[in-house]
């Protein structure tokens, strides 16, 4: 079998642009993959064409060889955009390989170690406790979710005295956990804090309530600083969405910097890299809770990873349709994310494997992809009282 072409499509996942990739073969089999959305997503299609020039005519089932070639032809480690493109190529190669054998991708990974994959729903903000409870109850009734991810911030960290920030979180979390004893909550601090002692104090306010985890409270660049942070915390510390490769995860693990790692299968270079990261983490007795805030194809790829991963813990999930919370609160239903016709939807808080469906087990809507649905997206930039800028 030979790779004959790459097609990329600019589509949309709610309010964010999304690049979806098809790899075609001379056997008539097409594989699909999803790039991470870092912001300058118009840069991805030409980058994908460049990378495809390096692997055209290869046998798509030689996944490790193809990824090695893509890395070796670059000299310097690829960064955010390079790895977002390589991730989608990796996904498509696995999809082709499994479809060629008429099996689900997880069958190529040693088979499934679990029958279904537990998911948590991202809420990404910190609404009033009663609002959180009502939202969780609705989602529990509809899909069986029992775990949710909130923001821990109830005050403006850039403008308010730190003591007020802590007290606002402490008061809120106390009420929230008291009125929602049936649910588990994780808290994503979104790499906003600069000072490690603040990250430690905030985590220790959450700790008495036994959250599922406390995510990425400080900046990711100084990996070794995470070891010192974790040593001050009794709450499980999770991080990894901003890290790129097994080498960075090895540093994090060696520094004792995480109780849970959160690599993103659209960021790190795909399923092959994700498996290597998970194996490293397993040897440190650390579970993997994949970062997955985006689209239904990425969720399908993650499902296969999770199905076959012994140290998988829980998968981040966003419903493809309906109104949803994001960092700005509740957003209306904008028609949803439509490029996957039959997305994996949770039942009883879990995604079911699809043993009779080859590849990723989903059907891509190629007609829908014909329309360019680009939407500009960039991070917000908070302005502090002195006019300087911070992380949002
Ligand atoms: C998440 O963990 O889902 C978020 O950090 C995603 C994001 O980039 O805002
Ligand atoms: Na996050």
Automatic annotation (TrEMBL):
One annotated GO biological process: amino acid catabolic process
Protein name: Isomerase
Alphabetized GO MF terms: isomerase activity; lyase activity; magnesium ion binding
Keywords noted in UniProt: Isomerase, Lyase
PROSITE patterns (UniProt xref): MR_MLE_1
Keyword Isomerase found: yes
Originating organism: Pseudoponticoccus marisrubri
Domain Mandelate racemase/muconate lactonizing enzyme C-terminal: from-to ranges: 129-236
Superkingdom as given in the UniProt entry: Bacteria
Keyword DNA repair: no
């Amino acid at each position: 079998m030979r790779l004959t072409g790459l097609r990329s499509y600019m589509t949309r996942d709610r309010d964010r642009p999304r690049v979806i990739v098809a790899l075609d073969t001379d056997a008539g089999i097409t594989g699909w993959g999803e790039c991470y959305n870092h912001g300058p997503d118009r840069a991805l299609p030409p980058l994908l064409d460049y990378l495809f020039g390096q692997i055209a005519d290869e046998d798509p089932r030689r996944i490790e060889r193809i990824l090695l070639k893509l890395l070796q032809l670059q000299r310097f480690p690829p960064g955010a955009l390079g790895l977002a493109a390589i991730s989608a190529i990796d996904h498509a190669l696995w999809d082709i390989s499994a479809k060629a054998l008429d099996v689900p991708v997880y069958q190529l990974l040693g088979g499934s170690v679990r029958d279904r994959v537990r998911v948590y729903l991202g809420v990404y903000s910190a609404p009033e406790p009663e609002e959180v409870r009502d939202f969780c109850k609705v989602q529990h009734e509809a899909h069986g979710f029992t775990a949710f991810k909130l923001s821990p911030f109830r005050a403006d960290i850039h403008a308010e005295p730190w003591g007020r920030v802590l007290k606002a979180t402490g008061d809120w979390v106390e009420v929230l956990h008291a009125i929602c004893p049936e649910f588990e909550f994780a808290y994503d601090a979104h790499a906003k804090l600069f000072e490690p002692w603040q990250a430690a104090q905030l985590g220790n306010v959450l700790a008495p309530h036994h959250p599922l985890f406390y995510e990425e409270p400080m900046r990711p660049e100084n990996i070794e600083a995470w070891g010192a942070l974790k040593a001050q915390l009794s709450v499980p510390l999770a991080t990894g969405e901003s890290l790129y490769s097994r080498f960075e995860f090895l540093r994090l693990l060696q520094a004792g910097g995480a109780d849970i790692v959160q690599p993103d299968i659209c960021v790190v270079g795909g399923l092959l890299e994700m498996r290597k990261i998970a194996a490293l983490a397993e040897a440190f007795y650390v579970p993997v809770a994949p970062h997955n805030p985006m689209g239904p194809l990425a969720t399908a790829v993650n499902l296969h990873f999770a199905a076959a991963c012994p140290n998988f813990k829980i998968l981040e999930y966003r419903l493809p349709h309906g109104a949803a919370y994001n960092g700005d609160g509740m957003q209306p239903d904008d028609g949803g994310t439509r490029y996957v016709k039959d997305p994996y939807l949770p039942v009883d808080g879990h995604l079911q494997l699809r043993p009779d469906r080859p590849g990723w087990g989903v059907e891509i809507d190629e007609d829908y992809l014909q329309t360019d649905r680009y939407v500009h997206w960039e991070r917000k930039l908070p302005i502090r009282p002195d006019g300087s800028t911070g992380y949002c």
